């Protein structure tokens, strides 16, 4: 198996490895159309390091959710494979926590009961469950809301519950599919800050799907850029912006604008174009502040 080189040149096994992965959907024959195949993912090779936050960006239909579902064990490749710690993924497991767009909370369970769900599945004793859920409810800033039901919470609060629920049973990997898409812009920035704070505290490996280039650049160590028809991995861009990022105003820095622009250019499908770094703040100004896919 391929390995990543650490700064000291010691080979390190990737936390997640995707090897020569293809996903083909067989479309049904319809009137006037023969049965066809649709290549959703083509020849994907990707490694995610232990403790890394990797973002997946790309246009609608490029296969981001399909890839995340395969990592979650909820979908399967047509050929090739995905591995966690060198072990082939063959189905869902508690080593992976999933946070989806739209919260997917159990409406009949309170905040605490939602957060404790995975712990119940793991048969963690009641007292310990309570300690753990209290810790994660506090971590996501929802102390005092333990006995509320999902319909009594705002969108941002529900998303925090979903994150606490995924973290509570201590998965090694967190898979997040556009988790902040359903909340307003201001709440989204607050949740991004929260996620970085939690990530720095818990050291989880995170794969984060987003339509927003800005979100990807703000959060990620590296951004995997996918293109559509068929879904291929175009480039993996390292984001060398300083951390912590959630304590300052990094989004308005020239460096941030430059990286965002680079990814935006990659998504404009201009192969082989040589990028020359524009000077200073003009880089950020040249890009739409709402640059998203
Ligand atoms: N069950 C299916 N049968 C046929 N085609 C499918 C099926 N599921 C997904 N696809 C196709 O596979 C491609 C990838 O879908 P996927 O949902 O992974 O894309 P995505 O990048 O997550 O899109 P979006 O950003 O819009 O959520 C799409 O073109 C979609 O139409």
TrEMBL record:
Lineage: superkingdom: Bacteria
Keyword Nucleotide-binding: yes
UniProt xrefs under Gene3D superfamilies: P-loop containing nucleotide triphosphate hydrolases
SMART domains (UniProt xref): AAA (SM00382)
Stored CDD domains: ABC_NrtD_SsuB_transporters
Sequence ranges assigned to domain ABC transporter in this UniProt record: 16-253
Entry GO MF terms: ATP binding; ATP hydrolysis activity
Record's keyword terms, sorted: ATP-binding, Nucleotide-binding, Transport
Protein's UniProt name: ABC transporter ATP-binding protein
Species of the source: Geobacter pickeringii
């Amino acid at each position: 198996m391929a390995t990543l080189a650490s700064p000291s040149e010691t080979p390190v096994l990737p936390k997640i490895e995707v090897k020569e992965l293809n996903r083909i959907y067989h479309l049904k024959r319809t009137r006037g159309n023969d049965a066809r195949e649709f290549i959703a993912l083509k020849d994907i090779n990707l490694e995610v390091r232990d403790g890394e936050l990797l973002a997946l960006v790309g246009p609608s239909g490029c296969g981001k959710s399909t890839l995340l579902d395969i990592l979650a064990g909820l979908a399967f490749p047509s050929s090739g494979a995905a591995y966690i710690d060198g072990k082939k993924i063959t189905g869902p497991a508690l080593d992976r926590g999933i946070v989806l767009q739209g919260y997917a909370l159990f409406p009949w369970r309170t905040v605490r009961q939602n957060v404790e769900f995975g712990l119940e599945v793991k048969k963690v004793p009641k007292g310990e469950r309570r300690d753990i859920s209290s810790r994660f409810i506090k971590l996501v800033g929802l102390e005092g809301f333990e006995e509320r039901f999902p319909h009594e919470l705002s969108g941002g609060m529900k998303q925090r519950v979903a994150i606490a629920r995924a973290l509570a049973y201590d998965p090694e990997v967190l898979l997040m599919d556009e988790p902040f898409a359903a909340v307003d812009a201001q709440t989204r920035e607050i949740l991004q800050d929260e996620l970085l704070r939690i990530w720095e505290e818990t050291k989880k490996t995170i794969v984060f799907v987003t339509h927003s280039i800005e979100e990807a650049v703000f959060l990620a160590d590296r951004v995997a850029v996918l293109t559509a028809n068929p879904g291929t991995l175009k480039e993996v861009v390292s984001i060398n912006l300083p951390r912590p990022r959630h304590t300052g105003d990094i989004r308005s820095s020239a460096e941030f604008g430059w990286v965002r622009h680079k990814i935006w250019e990659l998504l404009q499908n201009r192969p082989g174009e040589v990028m020359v770094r524009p000077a200073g703040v003009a880089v950020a100004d040249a890009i739409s502040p709402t640059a998203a896919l």
